[in-house]
Amino acid sequence: MRRPLRKGRLLTAALALTAGLLAGAPSALAAGTANATTTVAADTYTWKNARIDGGGFVPGIVFNRTEKNLVYARTDIGGAYRWQQSTKTWTPLLDSVGWDDWGHTGVVSLASDSVDPDKVYAAVGTYTNSWDPGNGAVLRSADRGASWKKTDLPFKLGGNMPGRGMGERLAIDPNKDSVLYLGAPSGKGLWRSTDSGVTWSQVTSFPNPGNYQQDPNDTTGYANDNQGIVWVTFDESTGTSGSATKTIYVGVADKDNAVYRSTDAGATWQRLAGQPTGYLAHKGVLDAKNGYLYLAYSDTGGPYDGGKGRLYRYATATGTWTDISPVAEADTYFGYGGLTVDRQHPGTVMATAYSSWWPDTQIFRSTDSGATWTKAWDYTSYPNRSNRYTIDVSSSPWLTFGANPSPPEQTPKLGWMTESLEIDPFDSDRMMYGTGATLYGTENLTKWDSGGQFAVKPMVQGLEETAVNDLASPPSGAPLLSALGDIGGFRHTDLTKVPSMMFTSPTFTTTTSLDFAETNPNTVVRVGDLDSGPHIAFSTDNGANWFAGTDPSGVSGGGTVAAAADGSRFVWSPAGTGVQYTTGFGSSWQASSGIPAGAVVESDRADPKRFYGFKSGKFYVSSDGGATFTASSATGLPSGDSVRFKALPGTKGDVWLAGGASDGAYGLWHSTDGGTTFTKLSGVEQADTIGFGKAAPGALYQTLYTSAKIGGVRGIFRSTDKGATWTRINDDAHQWGWTGAAITGDPRVYGRVYVSTNGRGVIYGDTSDTSGGGGDTGGGGDTGGGGTTPPPTGACSVTYKITSQWSGGFQADVQLTNTGSTAWNGWALGWSFADGQKVTQAWNTDYTQSGASVTAKNVGWNADVAAGSSVGFGFTGSWSGTNGKPTAFKVGDQTCAIG
To answer: How far is Cα 539 from Cα 262, in angstroms, rounded to an integer?
Structure first.
């Protein structure tokens, strides 16, 4: 069975994002304004992923050619990662991408500098059509991705567009690393930087911007975009250190003119004579030692499609083309990708049948420069297979998808969408390759050649790549239930462990909504998308096991669903038909009246017959179990449909509503009368989600969480006093792009919050402030009662932690705690470096450095630190020789204890 894990995301996530960021029209003023003073304080949170491990397409893997174990991976919407050899895990590098630049979590290409391995570049941007309103950019880092500087481009880039598995489109001159090239889509041509990525200009002499479109008749701007310039490869043997490389090859999305070459460092370009036509060159990989350019061809741009393909070898000295395809053209049903050369033994070449969905992908290997090939698996007597590999997914057991296929299919599969495959340039035994669901690897690859079986296993821990549509944290049972794009969702009984399986029976490609019965959490419902089969499922054991419901007539997609407080009935607003209700578990449905199709539905969390809906600026209420709805008289709510709302557990009629758009009503509203009236919170400028968690110690109301803009700052916020004051609990280093789909606190753990992302999985945060302080429990946010004038002189403690270190550079996190009895209103922390370290960049603080002395001061939003609370900041720095920790810290004249 095909499992195009990203296919569902192309429209659903993109359109959801577009709606969330752009939709809405001017509407009437809110019905009321809360008499609350909102302040923005700061708290120190620890952020982690609820482990899933992978979950999406990995289109690019990049090994540095001069430093061992320096490896990067790029994802189509979930950012970039760096390999940590000591733990064999991946470290995310683009979590600092903020709300306004959400498209920059899509990485279309990545380049690691072999001259200066500390430098890495990423070409970012998610869509080239209107779904992403922003242009692309090139990010550059001098500390291996710990921090970035950005150059905006005058065109868009498409990390999640067709053809994204081709590449790499971004390349660094191996002889003169201040020179970079970038292949652009959409007819924008070839671009070059001569100052290490700071500025870019078009290479006007390059003759062909490409012409291939996946579907010229598509009107969305998605499939009809010109896929453009798709890869750049340097022949390092034609240059010397410090001088620009003379010979450069460029791949173009043009079936008749797919490869060009320059022999004068990019001044002039010629179509490579004698090249094959009728195909796109997905990859161009050069073996400079033997003088061969290898090319992997497909008849389409991928990464899903491709029905024919060829492999060719071009002799750079003679211009001779040789067809080295492992399979006769008549027998192919796939395109070739995943091309790599073993740098220790350049005659060894590998490639993949990236678009061979059934029965499996195929990997080809040659040890004689393509003269002969062997396969990762062969048929013995059809449909039986003989594999040259073993595969162990015990670390990510869901990769079997719960399938029980018939031969020749096997589970788990070797992969699909295998556009990226790389042999470690320092270790012929290590190979990594990306699939549509994970990143696999082996550490004994050469067993392939000796008649043994090489061992494949996931090498993906730390790389989290799911798009999150909904989250739930029941008061008992599993702490987290998730609704995900592409792989459905999971029941997490332990956030630190990969669940054994996604939701099955049925297995939705994408789960769009889920809910549990508030007073009977064993009853759970989920709805989602499926090519054929039911779109709703129920569980009576807290999501551990499921059974399918029956669809009403006309259902085409999941929509939203709500469970009654006691689990006795359900209301469903599916795609394709109107709102429906049922008693029991969906064996029969009846149409709800008084509410429009497409409304978002939720349930009251105390009254089992009370349900709510929202559509196009109107709030709807049902008191008869969803049979009939009545439009509320509330006015001033957002006019568009980018709204999410929830009812407070345990209290009838207590509803919070978040949403809107920047050109109309936008913010957070509260109703205590079941939606009859709403009051807008004056201090919340924008809000997109709302969730509830365990009340703070001593607080009478549950904790609120939102992804919002408050005090002019976008972030994740918490309130422990019913929205009177707010604390930003994330920081600039932890933003994760777009977080507008869902949020929920944990009803059992104070301060714990679960945050949705669009490609970085489920993030959860835990507070260091277990007392419920942090500036948001004082009621009214009055900073005049007990605050001090900087610099504070109360007792303090400091924790200084080096979180990452590399040759010449490091990253550190600092936590400053007010251990006195008086609140701070402004702070400045001073210390000295004994070993000549220099701060190069900092976040969540304004810093100065004079010689060895450093002073880190608060920024506007984290000035207030209540007694017993903490504030955190971080920085990157340079070092040489030794990198000792500071031995003394002071706030004003007060020496801080060191934790």
So the answer is: 62
Count of CA atoms in the C-beta half-sphere (13 A) of 404: 1
Q: Say if residues 431 and 446 touch (Cβ distance below 8 Å).
A: no
Q: Can you give the pLDDT at residue 866?
A: 85
- Smallest CA-to-CA distance from 508 within 557, 439, 470, 443 is with 557
Would you state the pLDDT for residue 774? Answer: 45
Measured CA to CA, the distance from residue 883 to residue 23 in angstroms comes to 50
User: What is the phi/psi pair of residue 861, to 5°?
Assistant: -85, -15
Pairing of strands 201-202, 45-49: unpaired
CB environment 769-790: b (16+ within 10 A), e (fewer): bebbbbbbbbeebebeeebbeb
Q: Residue 674: in which H helix or E strand, if any?
A: none
Note if 299 is an active site residue.
no
Report the candidate in 762, 735, 687, 868 with the shortest Cα–Cα distance to residue 104: 735
Residues 6+ apart with CB under 8 A from 226: 185, 186, 187, 209, 210, 211, 212, 213, 253
What was the pLDDT predicted at 776? 47
Q: Residue 404: what residue type?
A: N
User: Which residue in the block uniquely carries the two structure tokens 């470096």?
Assistant: 833
Q: Which amino acid is it at 850?
A: S
With H, G, I as helix, E, B as strand and everything else as coil, classify residue 811.
strand
CA-based max dimension of the chain: 83
Closest by CA position to 141, among listed 113, 176, 163, 161: 113
859-895 pLDDT tens trace? 766 788 888 888 888 888 999 989 999 999 999 888 9
Q: What is the pLDDT of residue 768?
A: 86
SS3 64: coil
| pLDDT number for residue 794 | 67
C-alpha–C-alpha distance, residues 175 and 288, integer Å: 14
* DSSP letter (8 states) at residue 780: T
**Beta pairing, strands 431-434 & 439-442:** antiparallel
Best CA proximity match to 80, nearest among 716, 715, 737: 737
Task: Look at residue 864 in the predicted model and tell me its pLDDT.
Answer: 83
Enumerate residues 6+ apart whose C-beta is below 8 A from 86: none
Closest CA to 165 of 15, 369, 336: 336
Residue 257 CB: number of other CB atoms within 10 A?
Answer: 16
Catalytic annotation, pick one of 43, 173, 424, 486: 486
76 is catalytic: yes
Give yes or no for a contact between 45 and 765, defined as CB atoms under 8 angstroms apart.
yes
Residues 6+ apart with CB under 8 A from 252: 208, 209, 210, 228, 229, 230, 258, 259, 260
Strand blocks (E) in 253-334? 259-262, 270-271, 280-287, 292-298, 309-315, 321-323
| Cα 735 to Cα 144, 272, 473, 717, 873, distances in angstroms | 19, 45, 22, 12, 14
Distances (CA, A) of 214 to 156, 162, 217, 259, 357: 18, 7, 9, 19, 19
Residues of the chain with pLDDT under 50: 1-39, 774-791
pLDDT in the model for residue 537: 98
Q: How far is CA 591 from the centre of its chain?
A: 37
At residue 40, the pLDDT reads: 55
Residues 110, 59: Cα–Cα separation, whole Å? 11
Distance CA 508, CA 488 (A): 5
Burial of 713 (0-12, 13-18, 19+ CB in 10 A): middle
Specify the pTM.
0.85
The answer to whether 212 and 225 are in contact (CB under 8 A) is no
Distances 584 to 371, 522, 589, 702 between C-alpha atoms, Å: 65, 14, 10, 30
Place of tokens 């204890």: 897
Query: Would the CA dihedral through 101, 107, 113, 118 be positive or negative?
Result: positive
Give the active site residue among 43, 76, 113, 654.
Answer: 76
